[in-house]
């Protein structure tokens, strides 16, 4: 059954996935006046035990979309970071996060993912364009359009389909199935693109009791053990976001990466719960104070092909990084900027672009985003292994090399990376940004 609100003569973007990237795309298209419709298999802003780190180059995009102030009101910008060894000795007191804010004029923050999603959802003006509990289960293409089928049997027609539906992307699987008709080897590469070598419990907990916090607001604690590590960050008043990273006994590959239950998480806490995180608290203390918690494998990788005909993938559907430095979600927003910076001006010049013109937009997006994705995925993976002391060399570097590098130099290196992130070229830059700022490719 074709949905009644179709406008087949008008260019329309269909978006599968309503998490951070999907809702970010919705806002970007709405601000640009591009017709779209979004389909999310679950609810918007689900109450999952997750947080998201937002970095300065992403905050700039959120400012352009008009949503940053509502997020900023909920957080405490991170400032300091203490690094501990397995004996509880603090071998590095770092102020690099504060130095980064001084250099870039924007902070690094943690926020509850559900709160960030709630803000994004609230800022969508036309809620009739976004559909919860409406999973995309199939699609078919013609020379002029793509038609999706949802789980309730409805069909929706559009000009392109964006798969922003996460690491377990249905659209990616459907695209690989189409490709397999002519290239089974490529389809196999797409389906098996991600590996998992580390597992993670990520959680939100109450930050101790009044007068007895686990760690001060704006503080991050890192503790390094052999084969595992823990990060705790106090980025929201009264809450602490924390992560237990553990090297798995075996490396797995999609689609066979493990799925974990609450019992699996409990078993990890039984094994690692006595590990100290900061000066006066343990993993078990954080666990007992938890509000929400989830255990997942840490997939990592970049798929080989990102688009096919009228379908293009974005966010975790194409690149997945381990979460230690908190760059994965930010990479997704870079993708939003790179893609819409190509599509929006094309639609202004050519309201009904050809498949060739759309393919050029897809190719330019991939050419700009893919090298950045490899950098983020590789760097994140190295940091995960560095913090879990996976080799003697990494252990030596963490204790005797990195602490001696000045916060100023670290901030400068990070700023060079952050400044390589794009922004929305079709929307005004915030006043704090230099007029001479040059948009990266």
UniProtKB/TrEMBL annotation:
Residues in FAD-binding domain copies = 11-183, 293-378
The entry's localization annotation reads: Membrane
Give GO cellular component annotations, separated by semicolons.
membrane
Which residues span the membrane? 227-246
Keywords, A to Z, come to: FAD, Flavoprotein, Membrane, Oxidoreductase, Transmembrane, Transmembrane helix
InterPro entries in the record? FAD-bd, FAD/NAD-bd_sf, FAD_mOase_fung
Q: Which GO terms describe its molecular function?
A: FAD binding; monooxygenase activity
Query: Is ATP-binding set as a keyword in this record?
Result: no
Would the keyword Transmembrane helix be found if you checked this record's keyword annotation? yes
Q: Which family does it belong to?
A: Belongs to the paxM FAD-dependent monooxygenase family.
Q: What name does UniProt use for this protein? A: FAD-binding domain-containing protein
Species assigned in the record: Penicillium malachiteum
Organism phylogeny: Eukaryota, Fungi, Dikarya, Ascomycota, Pezizomycotina
